[in-house]
Each structure stands twice: as structure tokens, then as C-alpha cells.
Specification:
- With about 425 residues, the protein is α/β, with parallel strands linked by helices.
- It is built from 17 helices and 13 strands.
- Strands 8-9-7-10 form a 4-stranded mixed beta sheet. A 3-stranded mixed beta sheet has the order 6-11-13.
- Helix 2 links the parallel strand 1 and strand 2.
- Helix 2 packs antiparallel against helix 14, helix 7 packs across helix 16 and helix 16 packs antiparallel against helix 17.
- It starts with 8 loop residues before the first helix and ends with a helix.
Length: about 425
């Protein structure tokens, strides 16, 4: 893990004014003298600020412990805000971290390995040195999303797509009926690197790294981290799948499209498949085009570029962690409550989160929530080890290789060769 970055106090104070808001009536400060009758939590998902407040109020009504919710607005650097709180001795009891953020707090967070909730989820953030540091309050999934209505009309059973031959056959079957089904393309796949580099460069590369593996299997990310190594055989099979996507994607989207175009066309029923994760569910639900298209059922299949791959990639996009310098026992009690029935009801039904806990009985109204719940409950998930790639490699390195392949500047063998070169060069500079 990286060492904690120290920034000057003067900069911290100006940062606090910018990110938290000096003098604003809604500013919430963590009081160092505060008793365990009150805890504070940093929320970095501003779109559910109201639901987080409801969560805190429900906990207070049940236990008498007040939960002060500090919401960081969208676009604000949450880690910079946290550094400001820390250096001004106002660290929240519960903080929020993405995977890369944990390195800022080495040795300062509570190991929660012994907590009851830790045995009921595969999505906790676990550091090899410091233990279970992150509580997963939601989970997202990466897989090949599909329009169930279109597949049904085309006579394609998604459960039959268990390997590359079956995937190719499904694509060919749908393509032959494209006009009848009202499709613009079989799949909405985009290899545009400037604005969508995170999609192919990170998420789809994640399929190469983890598809079909147990959550603890780090074979291919370890190989990559050891000088940028790529497994030739596995990646060659992966390259064939990406070649299939290139062939059957919307030509107007493939190298020049935008995220909005990709999701909008899928919502309107113009693609049978789309290479985006479960996070598009909220956009679908709010889309008039999705309603006009019949609010069709969605599903998700594994990126099965080898026979027998039966997992989708799931993980928490970020986690809650407990500061050792705060109200530790009270914070741990709150997180345990959040993993149980009353907390899950609010987090899932009100906030719309997909529960990462195997025994949660609640399913969000998000169209992808039942899909994720089914894979989690059946133990058919792999991890998000793409998050451990060297910083910027996926978005600013690999994404341009995907674009070259999509443009036809590389064949499958060239895609492998260029991918290996980019990885090797990137890690050699670290």
C-alpha cells in the first residue's frame, strides 16, 4: 500500500472551504470530544444523500446513537476532503474509499475480519497486510448485458452461451434477424479511448484478468503486476471474443461513439447486447426510450471467451472503513446493523443498492438487481482485480490498443502483441 500523503495545513484549510463549504449551514464536523452516542459517516454517493440520512435516522430511532452523514458532492475529490478532515483532527468515524484510496490510510483503519458480516459477503475490501478494511454497502457487476425480449424473439437462450462457439452462434442467429427485430446492431461495443477508455481499458480487460476464476485467484493480475506479463493462450482466446464484438457492433459506435449513445441505443431496444455493467440500470429506469421499448427484462451473461466460464465480475465500487482514531465500537455496531435486516431494507429498497450479502432477502427495483443477486447467491462471481492494475494503464494505455483492433489496424495476433508491449512498457516505467 502507498504511504499516506501529507499536504500543507494551509492547503488543507482552503481545500475544506472548497469541498465541504466554509460557513454553510449544512456543514457537519466530526467532534473529537463526541461520545459514542454519536458517530459520523462520510458518504461519497451524493445521489443517495437523502437515503443515507434516512438510514442514519432509522439507526438512531432503534439504538439512540445519532449518525451524522457528511455527503461529498459529485465531482469533489473525496480523498482530498478526507485528508483535510484528518489533518484538522476532524476525521469521520466511518470513511468511504475506492480501492486506490486505501493506500492513503496505511495502519489507520480497523481490521474488521472478526465481524459477523465479514463471513456473509465476498465483496469486502481485504488488504493482504492489514486485513478486512472495507465494508461493502453495495455491489456492481461487469458482464455481457442483454435484452431478454430480443433474445427470446430470436430464439436464443442466454443460458446456452457458455463458451466462444455458443457466443458466436448466438450473434450470428440474431444478426440474421436484425431487421425483423428492429436492431441497429447485435451488440453495442465501443472502443473509443478518449472518453470511454475506462470501459474497454479497465472493465473489459477485467474480463481477461478474472473471468471464470474464484474470487481469490490472482493468477493473471499477478502476472501483469510482475513486469506487465500477459498469458498468451488465455489472451488469444480473449482477443477472439473482442474480434467478434468488433464484427457485430454498431459501426457508428465502435470507434467514435459515446457512453450516452451506447446506453441510449440499448435502452431503446436497438442492441441485443451491450458492454456496460449493472450501473446502467438507473439510466434505463429513468429513460423514456426504455419505457417506449416496453421496459424489457435485462440479463447478464459471463464474458465466456473460454468454455465453461460461468461467472460475472462483481465488487463494491467503494467501501466504508472505520478509523482507529474514532468511535470504533459504535462505528462497528452501525456497520453490523447495516448488514442486517433493517439496514438492508433501506440500503436496497430505498437507496436502490444491490446487496453484497448472501443472506439479504431484499432486491432493489433496479432492472439488474435480480441478476446480480442470483449470481451472488449461487456463488458464481469473480473479482475486480483490474482495479490493481498500474495507475492509468487501462484507460490511458490499453484503451488505444482496443481502438486499433476495432479500426482493423491490428488482427488478433497483433492485438496480443501490442497489448503485451503496452503492459510491459508501462510497468517498466514504475
Amino acid at each position: 500500500m502507498k504511504r499516506k500523503t501529507i499536504i500543507p495545513l494551509a492547503l488543507v484549510m482552503s481545500l475544506l472551504c472548497l469541498t465541504v463549504g466554509c460557513g454553510q449551514s449544512k456543514e457537519v464536523e466530526a467532534d473529537a470530544t463526541e461520545s459514542a452516542s454519536s458517530i459520523s459517516l462520510l458518504n461519497i454517493k451524493s445521489e443517495v444523500a437523502t437515503q443515507m440520512e434516512a438510514l442514519g435516522k432509522a439507526y438512531e430511532a432503534e439504538t439512540g446513537v445519532k449518525v451524522n452523514i457528511i455527503t461529498v458532492q459529485s465531482g469533489v475529490d473525496a480523498q482530498a476532503t478526507l485528508k483535510g478532515y484528518y489533518l484538522s483532527d476532524q476525521m469521520p468515524d466511518i470513511i468511504a474509499c475506492e480501492s486506490s484510496g486505501f493506500g492513503n490510510w496505511e495502519g489507520l483503519l480497523v481490521d474488521m475480519s472478526d465481524q459477523d458480516w465479514a463471513s456473509r459477503t465476498d465483496a469486502a475490501y481485504i488488504d493482504p497486510t492489514y486485513g478486512t478494511l472495507g465494508f461493502p454497502y453495495t455491489t456492481e457487476a461487469i458482464g455481457l448485458a442483454y435484452n431478454a425480449d430480443i433474445l427470446s424473439k430470436a430464439g436464443v437462450d442466454p443460458a446456452s452461451i457458455t463458451g466462444p462457439d455458443a457466443m458466436k452462434k448466438a450473434f450470428e442467429t440474431i444478426d440474421a434477424q436484425k431487421d425483423k427485430l428492429g436492431l441497429k446492431a447485435v451488440i453495442g461495443y465501443c472502443a473509443e479511448p478518449e472518453n470511454l477508455g475506462w470501459s474497454a481499458g479497465n472493465h473489459i480487460t477485467g474480463a481477461y484478468i478474472d473471468s471464470g476464476l474464484s474470487r481469490t485467484d490472482t493468477t493473471y493480475i499477478d502476472l501483469m503486476k510482475n513486469g506487465g506479463g500477459i498469458d498468451d493462450t488465455r489472451f488469444s482466446h480473449f482477443a477472439e471474443m473482442i474480434g467478434l464484438f468488433n464484427e457485430y457492433s454498431d459501426p457508428d459506435l465502435l470507434v467514435d461513439g459515446t457512453y450516452d449513445d451506447q446506453v441510449a441505443n440499448f435502452a431503446a431496444g436497438k442492441y441485443a447486447f451491450v458492454t456496460q455493467g449493472s450501473w446502467i440500470g438507473a439510466t434505463l429506469s429513468a429513460s423514456d426510450d426504455y419505457a417506449k421499448a416496453g421496459s424489457f427484462q435485462v440479463g447478464m451473461i459471463p464474458y465466456a471467451f473460454e468454455d465453461g466460464m460461468d461467472t460475472i465480475l462483481t465488487n463494491a465500487p467503494n467501501w466504508w472503513a472505520v478509523s482507529k482514531e474514532g468511535q470504533v465500537d459504535a462505528a462497528l455496531a452501525f456497520l453490523q446493523w447495516c448488514s442486517e435486516d433493517n439496514g438492508q431494507k433501506i440500503l436496497v429498497e430505498q437507496a436502490g443498492f444491490a446487496s453484497p450479502f448472501v443472506d439479504s432477502k431484499y432486491v432493489a427495483s433496479d432492472p439488474f438487481a435480480p441478476v446480480i443477486s442470483s449470481y451472488i447467491s449461487s456463488g458464481k462471481t469473480s473479482n475486480w482485480h483490474w482495479m490493481e492494475m498500474a495507475e492509468g494503464l487501462g484507460q490511458n494505455g490499453f484503451s488505444f490498443v482496443y481502438q486499433k483492433y476495432a479500426k482493423g489496424e491490428l488482427d488478433a495476433a497483433g492485438f496480443l502483441k501490442e497489448f503485451k508491449k503496452v503492459a510491459s512498457d508501462w510497468y517498466s516505467k514504475l
